[in-house]
Structures are given as C-alpha cells and as structure tokens.
Amino acid sequence: QVQLVESGGGLVRAGGSLRLSCAGSGSTISSYAMGWFRQAPGKEREFVAAISWSGGSTYYADSAKGRFTISRDNAKNTVFLQLNSQEPEDTAVYYCAAGDMLGYGDYEMEPPYDSWGQGTQVTVSS
Predict the structure, then answer these.
(1) Residues 6+ apart with CB under 8 A from 63
(2) DSSP letters along 24-82, please?
(3) Could you say which of 34, 49, 83, 124 is the most buried, measured as most Cβ atoms within 10 Å of its Cβ?
(4) What is the pLDDT of residues 52-66, one digit of tens each?
(5) What is the pLDDT of residues 87-100, one digit of tens each?
(6) Is-contact 50 61, C-beta < 8 A?
(7) Residue 74 CA: distances (Å) to CA of 27, 30, 34, 108
(8) How far is the C-alpha of 26 from the C-alpha of 39, rounded, in Å?
(9) Rounded CA gap, 92 and 83, in Å?
(10) What is the largest CA-CA distance in the chain?
(11) How many whole angstroms separate alpha carbon 113 and alpha carbon 33?
C-alpha cells in the first residue's frame, strides 16, 4: 500500500501561484491513477484534478479548468498540482490520493481511491 505525503502549500495572494507535490513511498505510484481533492473549512471534500496511471489522460473540476495543471513524474514517484491564477475560494486543505482500478467516470469520485495523504494547507488572500 502506497503512503502519500503532500507538500508545497502556503500563503499566496489572489492571482498568484503555488506548486503542490505528492510524494509516494512504500510502493511505486506508476501503476496508480492519482487525484487531487480539497476541503475548505465547513465544506465537504471536493474533486480538483486527476491523472491516469499512464499520464495520458487528465481530468479537472470546472473550477480548476484553465488554472490548474496536474502532472506526474514516475521516476521521482511524485505527482504535482500547479495552481495558477488563484482565488480566495481556492483556500482549502489539498489532498492527494491513489487508486489502482479507476475507469472512465471514476476519477472524480472518492471511493475508488484507497490511499490518501494528510493534506497541505493552501491559503489565498484577497
């Protein structure tokens, strides 16, 4: 079972950028689909972005399209989430997750993912 650790969160002004990292250990992530989710205070966790195990397909929430980019570097056993043009509404704890049996339509749903990191805080000021 892969262990995941997020990093790269912090404080940024509206319009600024951050790059989040999700490092895997205990197992390679090369055979896993990887996703990013976020949870704002008082709200439920929501889907942000996902990438297939091969890296050939990416998926984004409507709020992320055109602003965020998910990528992976299997050689480094790491997945990234580039956050650009950030808005105060992007303030949340960001989590990465891994799943090994995801099909079309499953990437934005939490149950298919079976490994989760502890999250990293992103705060966007206005």
Answers:
(1) 48, 89
(2) EESS-STTSEEEEEEE-TTS--EEEEEE-TTSS-EEE-TTTTTTEEEEEEGGGTEEEEE
(3) 34
(4) 988 899 999 999 999
(5) 999 999 999 999 98
(6) no
(7) 11, 6, 11, 21
(8) 26
(9) 12
(10) 40
(11) 8
